[in-house]
Amino acid sequence: MSALNLLKLGDLSxxxxxxxxxxxxxxxxxxxxxxxxEVYVQILIALEYLLDSSKEVAVIGPLEHPATKQIISYxxxxxxxxxxxxxxxxxxxxxxxxxxxPLIFNKPMLxxxxxxxxxxxxxxxxxxSNFEKIKTxxxxxxxxxxxxxxxxxxx
Length: 155
Fold this sequence. Notes:
This protein is of the alpha+beta class. It folds into two domains: 2-51, no CATH class; 55-139. Helix content is 48%, strand content 13%. It has six helices and four strands; from the N terminus they run αααβαβββαα. It has helices at 2-13, 16-35, 41-51, 66-77, 131-139, 145-154, and strands spanning 55-60, 83-88, 115-120, 123-124. A four-stranded mixed β-sheet has the order 2-1-3-4, with helices on both faces. The longest helix is centred in the N-terminal third of the chain and has 20 residues, at 16-35.
C-alpha cells in the first residue's frame, strides 16, 4: 500500500522522488511476489501503476458548482485505475504555489466555468468544460508495450 501511495503522491506533487522511492520498495519485494502473488496484491497493483501510464486529473472550479459535482461524481463512480484526482479553485499567485497541490497550480478555469485538465506524465490534453470530452479523455487507456509485442507474435 505504501508504494502505491508514494506513486500517487508523485503524480499529485509532480515529483519523481516519490516514484523512485516506490520503485525501490517494489524492487525489494520483487522475488517474494513470484512465489506467492496472492499475498502481495498491493505490490502488484503498485507495479502495474508504475509500469502503465497514469492519468493526472485536475478539476478546477468551486466544489458547490453543479458541473464540478457532476465531474467529481463521474470520476468517483467510474473504474479508472492509475488515476489521481485533484480538485480546487484556480491558484495562480506564486506566493500560494507551495500551499496548493502542484497538479492544480496555474491551471485556470475557462470562461468562468469549472474546467478539467487530463494529463499523462505531466502532459495535458487541452483543458475542457465539456462533460463528454472529460469522459473520453479519462477513459482513454494506453496498452502496455509488452502486450502489443506479444499480440504481434500471435498474428
